[in-house]
């Protein structure tokens, strides 16, 4: 028996949010301007990640070169100290991490205009400093921000968010406590549309409930997009102001 | 659990939200880890008072877009000393006095702060659920609400450096009270904090805040009806005021429990063991505990070693040194006759003899203990060193008359003797001792301090005169935890609005009917089949019906049609919840406690003759040899042609003049059922017996007047065989579709240790034995246990073997591997219950799963989830067991009433020989009773007990001759019913002639 009321009859979740509320969302870009071409630092609740984008650049291996388009490579480094208990092994070649990398590559392959950077490599590196549930969604947002910072052409924002299903109530953006006790899905939503570039369903979820889960997920992702957009615009205005001075 | 950390910062977000971090250090496996959680604070948490005009503006809807309802009354209870007020409860009050809070005559308009709710949840989950159900049905008289103080920006407080977590929580409660006090001041409503924590009260008084704090006792005293409910205040006698009552304070003290850290360490390194304690039925000072490493239960003997454990408690035990191991006592002892006058000190095992052992020595001791169990002579013993979880609930009992002081008219301490004889008597304080004498009362246990010989409790409610039908029935329902209150309004609202006028639609494609029930066209119309039902006489809840028809190819089409309860009981409704929690209908001698409301059970679902009814049908094609050629499942609509009783059906089948098609079908069913039974017996199905009897009631006075042993007809087994076949077919189908969560029933094979004693008795007395190799071998060896001189002997052995069997249980298929699905008694590899959805919840689940499996409608989430299925299974297993016990207790009571008028001499069988008595079973009444040595002989000292031969020899009181009594011996006993003076329980008393 869980020690907590996951969703109280009064409509409050373990951390005090309501069913349709996002966690705290803090982001900044161009945080590591010397180390990479594009970078971002993102805190989504207690998920804290650094994303570095290097490229488009010449690939170190000839085999990685595609004459028609750029190659997108995502590597996720989950640090040993990112969870409450320090893990003994590095997560580098864990199946789960490899799966996440593949999922992220596929999510962005269609959205980045790879055809305009032929024979190049776009290398995305993510460092997870702290995690607290719904990690894949956060990773998507981090990549979107870093790619924009690197000035790589994309069709639209992709914003990621996770949604859990508690009994019959969908809960937006699960934290790790919630993630452990209920099934959840992760969405990657393209811009302001209802197009999904990622739908990650790792637990069983009843088909007849999926629609309400997706609806709140898409609404949440749109809100995330707005938050990212406003931060980017703020940043851009500052740059413009600097350059005109 | 945690250490104070540096104060986290708050950060303001948009939309009236603030976020802060909860930081604490948790120790797990001896390692400390720092945990950081987000904690959001908000401004939109309403006070939920109808008087308030600010809060309705801030509320927001939930996921179903419903707004919270404002519950607290604008004109709450007004007391002369306080004025109009709401009550805020502290954790200790809720944990101690939840019964009092549930009392409809006191405590309305109550605020439960979230922090209190969390503390209650961590301390006791059952109390939490009771509290939650109070807050859920809050729109009626009680008006309980939960106030989320921890998420409210105005009432959240940070933990100060050096402040303990309890102090911080107490401060949070006071903060919430203060907020409420200020918030409601304009409306003239005061806040009263009721807490039994003196420090908390002092702190509240000191700060002179905007609320009043009181102890539970003071608050109840201030109520206008305080005197009446004062008896229900729980008894936690540790304060100094009560030292004057020396009556219960003997020198006797129990050993202290070990500290948590010592327990944890001991369990980890194997020096201590954890398990559920079971108190012996015959001796309340002897318990046993099943431990994983030991092949047999370990004994716990004597009050000091039992150390305040109740029957069923989860306890931690420690093995005693070898010098204290012993054979299980063969003495019968029950609490009601033990220490009746209670002033003597019991000489338990001497405390000073206790040897200090190191952990290493303890491990060696464990090995010795396991070896000793195998050699069978002495049994290792243990003592309780801690109680992990109490099994305390409400108990039924009556006041021991000799504990009441006749002169004293005021409050006094009295003993209550419980109906469950495995439990000690309870000490309660009451002012109404005289009034409550010879009444059945409900009490609740509060505490058992080590300085008290008996546990302390308090009075909850009076059921009525001892021996009155109503009080006894209610007592046994309560004692077996059977929910018997009428169905609530919410549950009844789930029934079809047409009520008794509900009709199955004429045609299955009728447009108006389809619009109401889009699944209707998926039903199969079986109204042309010649279906009939066969049930016990007077049966009103008919849940099964049958038909058989010859097919052109010579095979038989056989259909079993089960009432389609799930058409009316949809998942996640209040009706479904009620059914799930009741789990089963309970059959008492004079009444039936239904699982589902009458309208469904006896009308809409019942497959009554001559009307159209919805059913769930299992259709087989069987060949002449009753092998299944084909099986099909369908929701259907049927029309039963006739409802027979077993006798009527038998007569119709036997009557050669009946040559209509229905009778032909019934004959075919009978023929096929005989084949099925034969196959089942050949596969090794057991034919066990229980001493079941039936009580006949006088039709006018409804007094019981006759007891009869249940008879079996061929038609009984006709119905039974096809029900078994249906259950097996359904089990296979749902396991196929839901391999992880199918609702199934298993019956484990009995461990050979269970049969050891019986086999030994058979061997020495009769030269027979029971083989346990397989169920087939068991069945055959049971058949061989025949005494040519006594036809009943075989039945007796069967009754005794039944008691050695494991109980069958419900489970979900993910819980065991396929090989463990076996039903030992029926000798099938997979089984479920499908055929009685009106009276069993398991069948309701099986129906839904089958409907999902055949694609009729998607299966509800709760039956696809392992955790939810686990909860359902646990509950229905418990309810099923309780229902059986309640049924037996009811028969026992009525048999006692019958015997009251007819005292007689009957034949009995000795089934157990003890050191100081014998246990005799009287088949005619299905009663068994202990005959104490005192009643067998005048000279108890001359009696000798031979453990090897199972023999007790003594000088008979009446004849003065020496007499030996062996186990299995046929004896004549005088049966009469006596009212025990101490317990005022009527029971059969047996006297050897």
TrEMBL record, chain A:
Subcellular location: Cytoplasm; Nucleus, Nucleolus
Domain Exoribonuclease phosphorolytic span(s) in chain numbering: 21-152, 156-219
GO CC, alphabetical: chromatin; cytoplasmic exosome (RNase complex); nuclear exosome (RNase complex); nucleolus
InterPro entries named among the record's database cross-references: ExoRNase_PH_dom1, ExoRNase_PH_dom2, ExoRNase_PH_dom2_sf, PNPase/RNase_PH_dom_sf, Ribosomal_Su5_D2-typ_SF, RNase_PH
Keyword Cytoplasm applies: yes
Biological process terms in GO annotation: exonucleolytic trimming to generate mature 3'-end of 5.8S rRNA from tricistronic rRNA transcript (SSU-rRNA, 5.8S rRNA, LSU-rRNA); nuclear mRNA surveillance of mRNA 3'-end processing; nuclear polyadenylation-dependent CUT catabolic process; nuclear-transcribed mRNA catabolic process, 3'-5' exonucleolytic nonsense-mediated decay; poly(A)-dependent snoRNA 3'-end processing; rRNA catabolic process; termination of RNA polymerase II transcription, exosome-dependent; TRAMP-dependent tRNA surveillance pathway
Domain of life, source organism: Eukaryota
Gene Ontology molecular-function annotations: RNA binding
The protein, known as: Ribosomal RNA-processing protein 41
Organism expressing this protein natively: Zygosaccharomyces rouxii
From TrEMBL, chain B:
Presence of the UniProt keyword Cell wall biogenesis/degradation in the record: no
Membership in a protein family: Belongs to the RNR ribonuclease family.
RNB domain: residues covered: 523-856
Residues of the PIN domain: 85-202
Entry cofactors: Mg(2+)
Protein's UniProt name: Chromosome disjunction protein 3
Keyword Nucleus: yes
First-listed, main subcellular location of the protein, grouped into a coarse class: cytoplasm
One Pfam family named in its UniProt record: Rrp44_S1
Keywords recorded for this protein, A-Z: Cytoplasm, Endonuclease, Exonuclease, Exosome, Hydrolase, Nuclease, Nucleus, RNA-binding, rRNA processing
A GO term for molecular function: tRNA binding
Compartments where located: Cytoplasm; Nucleus, Nucleolus
Stored CDD domains: PIN_Rrp44-like
Domain of life according to the entry: Eukaryota
Entries under InterPro entries matching the protein: Dis3_CSD2, NA-bd_OB-fold, PIN-like_dom_sf, PIN_dom, RNase_II/R, RNase_II/R_CS, RNR_Ribonuclease, Rrp44_CSD1
One GO CC term, this protein: nucleolus
GO biological process entries: exonucleolytic trimming to generate mature 3'-end of 5.8S rRNA from tricistronic rRNA transcript (SSU-rRNA, 5.8S rRNA, LSU-rRNA); mRNA processing; nonfunctional rRNA decay; nuclear mRNA surveillance of mRNA 3'-end processing; nuclear polyadenylation-dependent CUT catabolic process; nuclear polyadenylation-dependent rRNA catabolic process; regulatory ncRNA 3'-end processing; TRAMP-dependent tRNA surveillance pathway
């Amino acid at each position: 028996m869980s020690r907590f009321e996951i969703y109280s009859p009064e409509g409050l979740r373990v951390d005090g949010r309501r069913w349709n509320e996002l966690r705290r969302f803090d982001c900044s870009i161009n945080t590591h301007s010397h180390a990479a071409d594009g970078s971002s630092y993102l805190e989504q609740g207690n998920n804290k990640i650094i994303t570095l984008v290097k490229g488009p650049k010449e690939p170190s291996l000839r085999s990685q070169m595609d004459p028609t388009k750029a190659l997108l490579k995502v590597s996720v480094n989950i640090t040993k100290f990112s969870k409450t208990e320090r893990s003994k092994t590095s997560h580098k070649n864990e199946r789960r991490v490899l799966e996440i990398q593949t999922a992220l590559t596929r999510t962005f392959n269609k959205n980045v205009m790879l055809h305009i950077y032929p024979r190049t490599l776009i290398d995305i590196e993510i460092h997870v400093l702290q995690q607290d549930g719904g990690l894949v969604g956060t990773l998507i947002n981090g990549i979107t921000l870093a790619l924009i910072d690197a000035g790589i052409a994309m069709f639209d924002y992709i914003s990621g968010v996770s949604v859990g299903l508690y009994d019959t109530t969908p809960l937006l953006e699960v934290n790790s406590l919630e993630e452990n006790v209920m099934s959840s899905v992760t969405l990657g939503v393209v811009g302001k549309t209802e197009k999904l570039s990622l739908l990650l369903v790792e637990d069983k979820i009843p088909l007849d409930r999926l629609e309400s889960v997706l609806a709140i997920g898409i609404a949440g992702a749109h809100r995330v997009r707005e938050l990212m957009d406003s931060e980017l615009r703020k940043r851009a205005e500052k740059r413009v102001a600097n350059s005109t001075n | 659990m945690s250490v104070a950390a540096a104060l986290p910062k708050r950060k303001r977000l948009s939309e009236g939200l603030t976020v802060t971090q909860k930081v604490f250090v948790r120790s797990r496996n001896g390692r400390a880890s720092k945990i950081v959680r987000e904690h959001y604070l908000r401004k939109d948490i309403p006070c939920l008072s109808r008087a308030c005009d600010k809060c309705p503006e801030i509320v927001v809807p939930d996921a179903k877009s419903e707004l919270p309802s404002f519950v607290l009354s604008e004109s709450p209870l007004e007391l002369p000393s306080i004025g109009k007020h709401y009550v805020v409860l502290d954790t200790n009050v809720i944990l101690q006095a939840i019964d009092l809070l549930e009392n409809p005559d006191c405590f309305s308009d109550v605020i439960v702060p979230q922090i209190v709710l969390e503390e209650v949840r961590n301390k006791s989950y059952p109390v939490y659920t009771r509290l939650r159900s109070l807050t859920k049905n809050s729109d009626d008289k009680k008006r309980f609400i939960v106030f989320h103080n921890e998420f409210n920006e105005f009432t959240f407080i940070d933990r100060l450096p050096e402040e303990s977590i309890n102090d911080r929580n107490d401060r949070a409660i006071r903060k919430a009270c203060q907020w409420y006090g200020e918030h409601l001041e304009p409306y003239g409503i005061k806040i009263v904090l009721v807490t039994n924590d003196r420090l908390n009260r002092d702190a509240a008084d000191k700060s002179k805040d905007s609320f009043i704090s009181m102890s539970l006792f003071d608050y109840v005293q201030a109520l206008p009806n305080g005197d009446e409910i004062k008896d229900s205040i729980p008894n936690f006698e540790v304060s100094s005021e009560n030292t004057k009552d020396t009556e219960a304070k003997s020198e006797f003290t129990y050993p202290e429990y070990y500290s948590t850290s010592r327990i944890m360490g001991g369990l980890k390194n194997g020096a201590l063991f954890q398990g559920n304690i079971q108190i012996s039925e015959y001796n309340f000072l002897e318990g046993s505990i099943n431990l994983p490493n030991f092949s047999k239960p370990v004994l716990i003997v004597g009050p000091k070693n039992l150390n305040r454990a109740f029957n069923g408690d989860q306890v931690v035990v420690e093995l005693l040194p070898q010098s204290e191991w012993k054979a299980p006592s063969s003495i019968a002892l029950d609490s009601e006759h033990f220490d009746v006058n209670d002033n003597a000190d019991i000489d338990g095992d001497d405390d000073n003899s206790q040897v200090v052992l190191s952990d290493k020595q303890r491990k060696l001791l464990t090995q010795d203990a396991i070896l000793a169990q195998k050699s069978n002579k002495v049994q290792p013993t243990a003592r309780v060193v801690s109680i992990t979880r109490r099994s305390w609930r409400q108990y039924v009992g009556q006041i021991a008359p000799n504990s009441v002081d006749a002169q004293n008219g005021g409050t006094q301490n009295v003993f209550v003797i419980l109906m469950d004889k495995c439990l000690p008597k309870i000490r309660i304080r009451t002012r109404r001792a005289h009034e409550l004498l010879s009444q059945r009362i409900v009490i609740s246990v509060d505490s058992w301090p080590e300085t008290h010989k008996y546990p302390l409790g308090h009075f909850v409610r009076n059921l009525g005169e001892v021996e009155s039908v109503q009080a006894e029935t209610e007592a046994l329902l309560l004692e077996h935890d059977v929910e018997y209150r009428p169905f609530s309004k919410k549950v009844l609202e789930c029934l079809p609005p047409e009520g008794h006028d509900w009709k199955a639609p004429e045609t299955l494609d009728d447009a108006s009917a389809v619009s109401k029930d889009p699944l209707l066209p998926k039903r199969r119309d079986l109204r042309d089949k010649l279906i009939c039902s066969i049930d016990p006489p007077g049966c009103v809840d008919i849940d099964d019906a049958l038909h058989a028809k010859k097919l052109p190819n010579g095979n038989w089409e056989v259909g079993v049609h089960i009432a389609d309860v799930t058409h009316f009981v949809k998942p996640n409704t209040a009706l479904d919840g009620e059914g799930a929690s009741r789990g089963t209908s309970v059959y008492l001698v004079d009444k039936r406690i239904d699982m589902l409301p009458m309208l469904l059970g006896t009308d809409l679902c019942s497959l009554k003759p001559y009307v159209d009814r919805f059913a769930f049908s299992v259709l087989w094609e069987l060949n002449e040899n009753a092998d299944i050629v084909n099986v099909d499942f369908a929701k259907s609509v049927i029309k039963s042609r006739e409802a027979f009783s077993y006798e009527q059906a038998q007569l119709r089948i036997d009557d050669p003049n009946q040559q209509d098609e229905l009778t032909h079908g019934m004959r075919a069913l009978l023929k096929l059922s005989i084949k099925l039974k034969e196959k089942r017996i050949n596969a090794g199905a057991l034919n066990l017996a229980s001493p079941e009897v039936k009580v006949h009631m006088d039709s006018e006075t409804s007094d019981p007047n006759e007891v009869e042993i249940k008879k079996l007809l061929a038609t009984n087994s006709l119905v039974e065989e096809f029900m078994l076949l249906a259950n097996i077919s359904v089990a296979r189908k749902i396991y196929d579709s839901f391999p992880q969560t199918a609702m199934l029933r298993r019956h484990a094979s009995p461990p050979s240790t269970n049969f050891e004693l019986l086999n030994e008795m058979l061997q020495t007395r009769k030269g027979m034995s029971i083989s346990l190799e397989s169920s087939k071998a068991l069945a055959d060896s049971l058949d061989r246990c025949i005494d040519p001189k006594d036809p009943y002997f075989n039945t007796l052995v069967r009754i005794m073997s039944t008691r050695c069997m494991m109980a069958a249980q419900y489970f979900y298929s993910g819980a065991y591997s396929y090989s463990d699905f076996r039903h030992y008694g029926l000798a099938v590899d997979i089984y479920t219950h499908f055929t009685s959805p009106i009276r069993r919840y398991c069948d309701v689940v099986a129906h839904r799963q089958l409907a999902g499996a055949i694609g009729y409608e998607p299966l509800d989430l709760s039956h696809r989830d392992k955790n939810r299925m686990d909860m359902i299974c646990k509950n229905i297993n418990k309810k099923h067991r309780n229902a059986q016990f309640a049924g037996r207790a009811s028969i026992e009571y009525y048999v006692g009433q019958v015997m009251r008028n007819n005292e007689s001499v009957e034949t009995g069988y000795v089934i157990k020989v003890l050191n100081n008595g014998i246990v005799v079973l009287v088949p005619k009444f299905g009663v068994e009773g202990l005959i104490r040595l005192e009643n067998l002989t005048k000279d108890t000292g001359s009696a000798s007990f031979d453990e090897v031969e199972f023999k007790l020899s003594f000088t008979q009181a009446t004849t003065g001759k020496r007499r030996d009594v062996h186990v299995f011996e046929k004896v004549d006993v005088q049966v009469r019913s006596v009212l025990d003076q101490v317990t005022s329980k009527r029971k059969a008393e047996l006297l050897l002639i």
